[in-house]
Every structure is written in structure tokens, then in C-alpha cells.
Amino acid sequence: MLERALKIIPLGSQTFSKSKTQYPYGVSPYFIKKGNGSHVWDVDGNEYIDFVNALAAVTLGYNDPDVTNAVKAQLEDGTIFSLPHELEIKVAEKIVEMVPCAEMVRFGKNGSDATSGAIRLARAYTKRDHVAVCGYHGWQDWYIGSTSRNLGVPQSTIDLSHVFTYNDIDSLNKIFMQYSGQVAAVIMEPMNTTEPRDGFLERVRDMAHKNKAVFIFDETITGFRFANGGAQEYFGVIPDLATFGKGMANGYPVSAIAGKTEIMRLMEEIFFSFTFGGETLSLAAALATMTKLQKEPVIQTLWKQGEKILKGTIELIKKHELDNVLSTGGKKCWSFLLFKNTKTYSQWELKTLFLQEVFSRGILTLGSHNMSYAHSDGDIERLLQTYNEVFALIKEVLVKGNLKAWLKTNSLVPLFKIR
Fold first, then answer.
1. CA dihedral sign, ordered 138, 143, 146, 152
2. Residues 363, 226, 146, CA angle at the centre, nearest 5°?
3. Is the pLDDT of residue 416 over 70?
4. Are strands 32-36 and 326-331 parallel, antiparallel or unpaired?
5. Is 238 helix (H, G, I), strand (E, B) or coil?
6. Distance CA 105, CA 258 (A)
7. CB-CB contact of 71 with 82 (8 Å)
8. Which of the four pLDDT bands, split at 50, 70 and 90, describes residue 16?
9. Considering 32, 94, 369, 406, which has the largest number of Cβ atoms within 10 A of its Cβ?
């Protein structure tokens, strides 16, 4: 299947993170046929417990019955029309009800739509061009130009985006000093692998406002995961604008920009418009997903089950004396297993061995635990049993220096550092 795909699809995938750049060739599954709950099946019939969950887009579980039934019902009426559909109002009202910063809402189809729309909005509102960025914000020129994957991005665009470092307020202050009166927006993921320290989020907000820049949270992942109202509700730090995607519709393609009316009204003046912005199947999925978040202990379950994984993983790292090689990061609902370089092997060589071995044991992960409501105690026990076996092997490889004897593929190389 991969051989066929590579002939007609660059990288054989629509998404870098689903391609052979992230999955070691020869030891990885490349195409999934179906999913149900917390499990997926590849095209060869192998079953996996999935902790990738469509890059954290699936929060309830695959084929969640409430979402599937809502989509089926809407399918009978139609998917796209010549005029807006009432679902646009209902979903916008639901976001306003749940998200602290949300006074008005516009929809996109993926996270890059929402973040790019928010930046255009901020530039229109402030009449400024420069942007301070922290974290990952999608594929569009304004952001990706600030990374090493900037091939094809005009230098004039690259020159307008500036990276600051998480938990380093001085790095943001330097941007404001260098481009005084020119920064339109500060956009950041409120959290990924590292906890905010010393009131960092509050200090970023205050510095943005002091310099009359729009403060934007990219909640593409943290939204509807950290809390029903996102990381802004969890941390109690309210941005001017926020962007959402991924889990807001349990895997259906829809995203949103939400924020203050004063700023959002400019959506009537800037151009943020596309044919499928009001596509109804995804909106029906979003409404069903958010309604379930309100009615059932979804978020609490993500945290509770994720805590078991995080606690168990930390114990296994200690058991196998791998503290100098492995660590954990993130929150219980979205945590990470992090690899470090050693004197003998790079983190990428060790991660390649790790992936090879967990895949062979029926666990699908890229080193993160993107929790879903469907992950059972049995799933978690299986994951930790796998970690116990694989950590023992990693320890043996480090002691004996025999990684090549175990590795059945070439080592991964870093795509680009985003967090």
C-alpha cells in the first residue's frame, strides 16, 4: 500500500506526522482500515490500542455512537447548502457557552485556518504586521516561515514572525523591544510538554496588553481536553482570541476562532471565507461532541485514565533505571514520553527502537498519550505491560551497546522542532 501511495502522493500521506518521516520504514503500520473505541486495525488486519488518536483529534473514541448518530441524521438532510444552516448558530452558541473568552465565533476546517484567521484579524485590529509565536501553529506561511521547514516561504514573510521561548518572558520582551509598536499579536500554545512557571501565562498576557498586541491562545489541542472551556479555563488566563480544532468534533474537520466581540467584528471586513466553512456533518459532530462533554465525565475520565499511565510510566522508568534517558512531560490528559541523547546513541535511535517494539506488541503511539474517553483500564494495563518489556530492552541495549543487533530499520531523523 505504501509503495502504491509513494508513486502518486508525496511522502505517501497527506500529513507529515502520519508519514514515513515519523513511522520507521519496515517495522510500522502505514494505513489504517477502521477504528472503534480505543482500537484501530491496519490494512493487514493487525489490531492496535491507539494512543495517537488521529493526532489528538479523537477525544471520545473512534465511531462514538452519539457523534455517529448525529452525523447520520444530518446526512439525510444534506451536507452543504446555498445559504447558512442553523447548526452554525447552535455550535457557535455552544462554544460561547463553554469557552470563557468566546463572545463571537467563526468556523474553519482545520487548525491552520483558525490560527491564520486569528493572525489576519489581529493585524487588521492593530494595523501592525509583526507576530510573536510560541509552539506549533500550522502550515501557513506566517508561522511555518519561523521554522526550519520554511522552503517556499517569501523572506519578507519570514521576517515578520519571531519565536519566543516558553517560560522565558525575557525572550518575548526582546521581541517587543526590537519591534516596538510593530507587534500585532502574541500567539502561543498555553501548554504542551512543559508546565508554565512563575505566572508565565499571566505575564505573557500582561506584556501583550501593555504593548497593545492581541493575545491569542492556540487551543487546537488543549481545547476541549484540559477542560470543557480549554486551557484558558484550566489555568484561569483568558486570551483576547482563541483557536480550536481537533477534538471539538471528535475527529471531524472543523475548527473555530473565538474571542472578544470588539475584535471579532472585524471578521466582517477581513476576508476569511471558504465554501465548506458551514459544512453540516462536521458541525453536527461538533454539537454532539460538546454536548457529550457537558453531560458526561469526559474530561475527568481523560485526566483519571491519563494519570494511571503517567504514574505507571514514571514507576517503570525508575524500575529500569532509565532516568537519564527517559522522562515524562505534559498533563495527564495529554502526556509525553521524552527521549534524551546518550553518549552512545541519539534520542532518535532510541525512539526508533522503542517504536519498533511497541508497534510489534499492538500499541500505536508516537511517544505521546493522547487520551480518549474510550481508553479502558485493560488498555492501560496493556500499555504499561508493553512499556515494561520495551524499557527492559532499552536498558539492555544501553548496557551492552548492541542497538544495531535489535534495530530492524534505519533510525528516524528529526522533522523539525516545533515544541
1. positive
2. 85
3. no
4. unpaired
5. coil
6. 5
7. no
8. confident
9. 369
Strands 130-134, 39-42: pairing is unpaired
Q: What percent of the chain has pLDDT over 70?
A: 99
What is the grid cell recorded at 142?
A: 506566517
Classified as helix, coil or strand, 218 is: strand
CA torsion sign for 147, 6, 354, 409 is negative
DSSP H helical ranges for 256-374: 261-264, 280-295, 298-319, 347-360
d(CA 262, CA 316): 51
Contact between residue 277 and residue 107 where contact means Cβ atoms under 8 Å apart: yes
Q: Rounded to whole angstroms, how far apart are CA atoms 19 and 15? A: 7
Task: Kindly state the average pLDDT of the residues 351-364.
Answer: 98
d(CA 45, CA 34): 10
Distance in angstroms (rounded) separating the CA atoms of residues 398 and 356: 16
Which three cell numbers, joined as nine digits, stand for 147? 521554522
In the 8-state DSSP scheme, what is residue 254?
-
Per-domain residue ranges of the chain: 2-62+297-406, 65-295
**Phi (first) and psi of residue 281, to 5 degrees:** -65, -40
What pTM does this model have? 0.94
Write down the H helix ranges in 84-164. Answer: 86-98, 111-126, 141-144, 155-158
d(CA 31, CA 49): 15
CB-CB contact of 259 with 241 (8 Å): yes
- Summarised one tens digit per residue, pLDDT across range 144-164 is 999 999 999 999 999 999 999
Indicate the fold that domain 65-295 takes in CATH: Aspartate Aminotransferase; domain 2 (3.40.640)
Distance CA 200, CA 189 (A): 12
Position 87 scores a pLDDT of 98
2-62+297-406: what CATH class?
Answer: alpha beta
Q: In one letter, which amino acid is 214? A: V
Check whether 417 has a pLDDT greater than 70.
Answer: no
* Spatial distance between the Cα atoms of 303 and 322, rounded to a whole number of angstroms: 25
Q: What are the residues facing 215 on neighbouring strands?
A: 186
**Residue entry with cell 494505513:** 31
Give the integer Cα–Cα distance in Å for 256 and 141: 19
Q: Taking all residues of the chain, what is their mean pLDDT, rounded to a whole number?
A: 96
Do the beta carbons of residue 166 and residue 200 sit within 8 Å? yes
- In DSSP terms, 1 is beta-bridged to none
Kindly give, in sequence order, each residue whose CB lies less than 8 Å from that of residue 348, ignoring residues fewer than 6 positions away: 339, 411, 412, 413, 414
